[in-house]
Design goal:
The chain is an alpha/beta fold. It folds into 2 domains: 120 residues, Rossmann fold (3-Layer(aba) Sandwich); 188 residues, no CATH class. Helices cover 38% and strands 19% of the residues. The protein has 10 helices and 12 strands. The strands form 3 sheets. An 8-stranded mixed sheet has the order 3-4-2-1-5-6-8-7, with helices on both faces. Strands 9-10 form a two-stranded antiparallel sheet. β5, α3 and β6 form a beta-alpha-beta unit. The radius of gyration is 23 Å and the shape is elongated. The two termini are 35 Å apart.
């Protein structure tokens, strides 16, 4: 922290909120910039020289208007329902939410324990990848994808030739997927299925030993060779080496209605491989379970974790094949 300041809203102008503001002012190394207070009962325009921007019903618009990174809920006397209502108001994408502890019992298994210069806070939701960490991850993506494309170009040319010899149709297959911030992009693959694979059925979930695969396609999919063109997506910045695997828009629309926080997995770029995949959740396994792993990755990202996932992916490919 301290390189790029996190923009913060404090919910609550009472004693706890003021104590938190003072702690932030006294501890610049925390890397916080307090934009303002939010409070339902405050009649003043400012507290300790910091503006009171509105009440909790204004949170969604304030978060967007002021590009807020983190909300600190400092209402230890509030009811559990009030706290949960405020958390729901803060459901605005890439946003960390921390609560001054008096509600630990309502979601003990869902929070992390943090501190603010010695003051205890509960992290209800976190976003690990932002600021300089984004630059670090992007730098690794560029270097590894560029080197990978150069080193693997002879193999990729050979595969392209074999695809043309194996079955009629194009070498590459571009499919629309949902990426960062749920924006669509065209994900590249070596074509592993018949050219008319979905002509009669429409969008269908791919499965292991899918009968629509060509002979060469089945072999490529076993060792995920069909995914190699996604190095181009990574180099272009549409994907990352590591991240939640992207889904097709038609399936995203289904999952967002039935799986809590499913859309939060789009806070990061989609990846060629991910935490869920190296833990055995791939293909037609449970989407709800996979989403839990994706969200854990989003909230706990580190460069070491990315390297671990990449190495584990390579190990799985060489020993088992089919990383999903």
């Amino acid at each position: 922290r301290g390189v790029a300041l996190d923009r913060v809203l404090i919910v609550g102008t009472g004693e706890v909120g003021q104590m938190v503001l003072q702690k932030i002012r006294n501890t610049p190394s925390l890397g916080y910039e307090v934009v303002g207070f939010v409070d339902n009962n405050c009649q003043r325009d400012s507290v300790m020289g910091t503006p009171v921007l509105g009440d909790t019903s204004d949170l969604p618009s304030l978060i967007d208007e002021h590009a807020i990174d983190e909300v600190l809920i400092c209402l230890p006397e509030a009811s559990h329902q009030e706290i949960l209502s405020i958390i729901a108001q803060c459901d605005r994408g890439k946003l960390s939410i921390k609560v001054f502890p008096d509600v630990f019992q309502i979601m003990a298994s869902e929070v992390g324990i943090d501190d603010l210069g010695g003051l205890p806070l509960l992290t209800v939701r976190d976003v690990a990848l932002r600021g300089w960490k984004l630059t670090l991850k992007r730098a690794m993506d560029i270097v590894v994808s560029a080197v990978g494309l150069v080193l693997l170009s002879p193999l990729m040319l050979l595969i392209a030739l074999l695809i043309k010899l194996d079955s009629p149709g194009p070498v590459f297959y571009a499919q629309e997927r949902m990426g960062l911030d749920a924006k669509p992009f065209w994900m590249l693959k070596f074509r592993s299925m018949r050219q008319d694979a979905e002509a009669e059925t429409g969008p269908v979930w791919a499965t292991k030993n899918d009968p629509r695969c060509t002979r060469l396609g089945a072999l490529m999919r076993r060792f995920s060779i069909d995914e190699l063109p996604q190095l181009i997506n990574v180099l272009l910045g549409e994907m990352s080496l590591v991240g939640p695997r992207p889904e097709r828009p038609v399936f995203v629309e289904q999952f967002r209605k039935s799986i809590p926080r499913y859309m939060d997995r789009h806070w990061q770029k989609a990846g060629m491989t991910g935490w869920a995949q190296v833990n055995g959740l791939k293909g037609d396994t449970s989407i709800a379970e996979r989403t839990k792993y994706d969200l854990w990755y989003v909230e706990n990202w580190s460069l070491f974790l990315d390297i671990k996932i990449i190495l584990k992916t390579i190990f799985n490919l060489l020993t088992k094949g089919d990383t999903g």
